[in-house]
Model the fold of this input.
Amino acid sequence: MILALLSSCTTEPGATSVCLLTTEAEAGVVAIQLEGTPGLLEAELRFPASPTSPLPVVVQVFGGWDDEVSVDAVGLREALALRFALSGPEWAGGERDLRGPVARSAVAAAMAYAHGDTTDAEGCRLAERVPDVDSSALILLGLSNGGNLALATLADATLSIAEPVAVILWETPVGAQLINIEHRNASKLYTKGNCQLDGSGLHCPFADAGQLNEDGNLCFDTDGDGLCSADEAARTPLTDPLTGRLATSAELVAAALALGPRPEGWDTEAEGTAFWADRDALLAAPSVVTRFPDLALMILASETDHVLGGLSDHPHVYALGETLQTAGARWLRLNPGTRWSGQPQENAIGLRLQLDTPEGWLYSELAEEPLAGPIDAAVAELAWRHDSADWVTEW
Done:
């Protein structure tokens, strides 16, 4: 679709606003810049193929560790999507901080614009751009690692947050080991049901202690050939360019130290713990529930996770659900109900999610494709409940 910015600008009664976006086809994307502190934030509006009125607005936080807006584009059927970069040359001095405070500020700025609280770089509010939008029906969507950033942003007490009515978390890995995929989806390194959840996060001990390769780095013989290939060496951790902290989990550091000196370039357990303190959704979850007690939360998960396909008991799904429920979340659902998903099964609202006894219906891979399917269903259910009298239910 081509989106045209109307050129007429007048204050006469009935005149068209310069801010109004009009469509010349059924769906499309328009680039905008959001005002932030400091600088400008690159963003885009993605219009639905089947617009409804009023139109919910979904702020999408993409996954991985990248900062660019081009990742994880999810087009929605019946909602306006706002997607944005996490850093850039005109935003926060161009600083990239691996989804730390700079990235959280970007999420907060996007939510403020989606809620109608701020203008974009051309002085236009979202409702002036898209008159049919319902900014009160603001939904925050965290895709994969974007779910960690979404909850970390909501928990950040230094930020003024435009409260969403709901948060959708699509297959969000939680816990330092799982976010970093340190188990490599290898059954040899992971013991089903062996993960533990406590106040410091999710911990999944390595079933194989590993070995040191000829370079003195930790290596796991995942294929059982007795050798240590380059692909089997533990990855060098990500480094936060602003603090120098590295993203190794405490468990991986401990496994290396048990075999010999800490590999060169690795952080200590304390440094790794500091890195994850404001980047892991499990650690943010209690503060999110306390700050936004009426927030509705939906976790989307499939039988074969897109990141953690080898871990059949889905510890990230149930640990996140258990943590949110323990914190007192009033409304939580694992995957949408049948009315919206079109699937033959559904989980009850408030179904108890527990790490040690994982239960609940998960999408089959066939049902999950394409990605937009379960997300569309989740948005439809949450928008409907936003308009219903029984939005918040205790359980």
